[in-house]
Specification:
With 538 residues, the chain is mainly alpha-helical. The chain is built from 22 helices and two strands. It folds into three domains: 195 residues, MFS general substrate transporter like domains (Growth Hormone, Chain: A, Up-down Bundle); 57 residues; 235 residues, MFS general substrate transporter like domains (Growth Hormone, Chain: A, Up-down Bundle). InterPro entries: EmrB-like (IPR004638), MFS (IPR011701), MFS_dom (IPR020846), MFS_trans_sf (IPR036259).
Length: 538
Amino acid sequence: MTSPTAAAPVSRVPEAVHRRRWWILGTLVLALLVVVLDNSILNVAMKTIATPAPVGLGASQSDLEWAINSYTLVFAGLLFTAGLLGDRFGRKWTLLAGMLVFGLGSLLSALAASPGELIGYRAVMGLGGAFVMPATLAIIMNVFERHEQPKAIGIWAGAVGLAIAIGPITGGLLIEHFWWGSVFLVNVPIVVVALGLMGWLVPDSKDPNPGKLDPVGVLLSIVGLVALIYGIIKGGELADFTDPSAWVPTLVGVLALVAFVLFEKHTRHPALDVTWFRNKVFSASIGVVGIVFFALMGVSFFGVFYIQSVRGYSALEAGELMLPLAVAQLVFAPRARLVVDRFGIRATCAGGMLLVTAGFLGYAFLTATSPIWLLIVLGFVMGTGMAHVMPPVTVAIMGALPREKAGAGSALNNTFRQVGGSLGIAVLGALLSTVYRNGMDDHLATVPEQVRDRAGESIESTLGVAEKLHLPALVDPAKDAFIHAMHVVSGVSAGVTVLGAVLALLLLPGKVAAPGGPGAPAPGPQDRSGSGASTAKV
């Protein structure tokens, strides 16, 4: 029997916005697609960019890592500020500005004449992306009622899978028919279309009581992340982490990040409100996000070289072989809420992490002659696991914060995802480089001394030197050394994701549903009255 005092939740979303909410979501997904699409395309193009001019830019292993990390570090370092600016001045306008900058960076990247220019222009793209990503999720939280937010976030997360699916195929087609810069130029028309749709459909929203900006905190976070990852990459290049050029920047990065945390704890207007981490569910969800992307991005980096350099597949074929991982995310991510409703966040996320672990363990047993269908199965298993991790933890993160702080919450979610991915590329890339270099030391005696260091840097460098100097005896040892390095990195990644599964089991809730799900708490006074919520304009 229904209590006579029970009241139906009052809608917090204007009717005009509510009616077009799914069209708005589609427009936000398009903005998300272009940002994620870029990195998935770049993964396919890395082998071509590493090829000497005029085909590519002759990028080294470190150049390729920095082409990814320059984007990610600027993105992650500015997400706090971008989220706060969106909450303060309006998420629609930060979204539009971010898309404009991202489009400009894409155009400049397509015209880059050297690896250094490409790295710099990728940083411009990261600047634009920093304003796009938090705005999309924050707007979703403000145009959907609580009971629809898990479904909308599932679609938002599934869009990542769609971008991963489209990116490699698109990149492969472009690489086979055009020059490498076309993988960036393709972003421009998508940005133009997205800008038009966003200007027409997306409503503005903002925090009625925004805090002040925190330039000191933002600066410390940027310095810390850049220095830390630079040191790790340098150590991998030198195969010696005790070298001063590796450990000094690493130490500077750690000290800067410690200073960042201490400063944020005592400043009156922090970019990152560290008190949010007192919420066990919030902290665990953030940790799971960072862990899964740490492992996944590192393996994604070496997967391209295994498919193309070891197995001999073209860029287009490499893209097709990545489809299973993407399709699994696209299919299962929007439906993850149904699994959460039945089994709870804890079991769903831990099970997803264990599926990802199984995929990594499968990589640890691949050889140069393994049936290619094994790679397809592994990709599908890992994609299914990801689809049951990211939507639930994203809902948990956003549901743990006040609605008016949606921009800052979204920025924090994406920061840990991007920082985790960047650290994965740096740490696992350095491990891959070190193990590979050690495996090749005994096979480089016939290589001229002036190119010996370059020849041992990566499998692509070794194969390039072998072809140029007519040294076919280097090919098989290079493939063997790479496969061994891949096995080591896969094993480490599996161990990391097991830790993530343990974290989920220990700290995430059981069948306490996310906002809108069965058992979710009823809207509080602020939700019913609308006071304290973000303001929205039609």
